[in-house]
Amino acid sequence: MADPGRPVLPGQVSPPEFAASELFPGAIKGVDVVALPVLPGDEGTLLLGPGAAELSEELGLDLVGIAEVHGLTGATAEVAVVPVPEGSATNPALRLVLLVGVGAARPVDLRRAGAAMAKAARDRGAVATSIPAVAEDTSPDDPVALEAFVAGTMLGSFVFHWRSTGPEHHPVRRVVLAGSTTDRAALERAVALGGAGWRSRLLATVPSNLKNPAWLAEQAEEIAADSGLEVRIWDEHELARDGFGGILAVGAASATPPRLIRLDYVPQGVSARAAKRLPVVVLVGKGITFDSGGLSIKPAASMGSMKRDMTGGAVVLAAMAALADVDCPVRVVGLVAAAENAISGSALRPGDVIRHHGGRTTEVGNTDAEGRLVLADALAYAVAELDPAVVVDIATLTGAVKVALGQQVGGLFASDDALAAALDRAGERAGEPVWRFPLYRGYEDKLASKVADAANDPGGAGAITAALFLQPFVGDVPWAHLDIASVGDVEKEWHEWTAGPSGFGSRLLLSWLGSVDPLRDIGA
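and the corresponding structure tokens:
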């Protein structure tokens, strides 16, 4: 039965739909916008992409001259807007021509051009564009340029609202990739990657007066039903029965109890018997649905963005939902440790000692270092119960990684060089770059506790010591830790990144897990 006091999330907008056509953009009927690529030519000249000459002639407009008058240079994401109030003979519905700079037409350029086009075409019905057709590396075997453009267009369109009057803007409803011989499967994969980025960003943006651990578990159940995944949810009683002391301790002060979420993916067409022989990858996400800091309370200025402290969990949920769409060839288990770090008489205290799943103990020196406490439980469970070939966790874990990297690069730690290299390549491809840090053993003494196996507030080299805290829970299993606190928030619009929670990481994980052999050389 629905709780009458529970907030109700308004209906949200959907990302654009995509289609492909071999026709030039000006020949596609019913679209109200055409977007043409602009490239820098020799000696300061400009070149327009496929379909521009034909559309210029039909409209009686010198589109190259118009681009020059607008001061375009062909640089990535420049945009000139050309009204066409009378439409064209071929397409009377046409009202706008967008001239969009694509620079060197690399994947990063196409991602940014897609985002620029999306912002210029918002509130429109449909746009036909030949922007992806200028990519030199277009290949049905490795459609990285297509993936980049589609992701940029989708994420540049992102809108979240909770207004009584509805959203201020809507994404363009339909995007037609014109002058294209795009393979349908490649386009569907590209849309799945962009959609995962949208989903993780949406989940991270939902306010915490709705988004509590139980709500997040409900989202997982909906994803499982829609995506053909198995799902299991531990409530607070089952968490206590199975010894998940970290998750319970962090969530003890909240009026909404914690949850552990498990989703299971098996590749399509694989029998139950054959599935047992496939290697297992475990993804673990931090799901702190709001982080007050607990009794070690955060300053007010640091608390305002803490609805996004479950970004790691959102990324895991979004990636699990899209594994089948990218043809992931291995079994994957997604775990999300969900809790609200609140303040009350039952709150976790500095000086408390907690026992994690499997028996390892932690002395709590700082209740605001809670993410590692819930991750530890999930990691220990993964290793003890799932026989994983690889474990990857992802979390908005430390402010230290933001100090080190700024806000455009995520932190990567890994116990296996091949795994580190695979994630680095996937991040570069997806436009979610990471930088590897060392698991430097010289800092292990900072974790020492006089009464427990470790302390959670080692201080100094904060990103590294947080990773070192987690490492004993995975033992010898190849493991990577993605600390995405650096990229968890976007302060202002920057290409495909709209202001607010970023949802960073789902495209990275899917680019890796959707490769032909994601576990190649790992653990060798």
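(Above: one complete record from the training split.) Residues 17-182 form a domain with the Leucine Aminopeptidase, subunit E; domain 1 fold (CATH 3.40.220.10).
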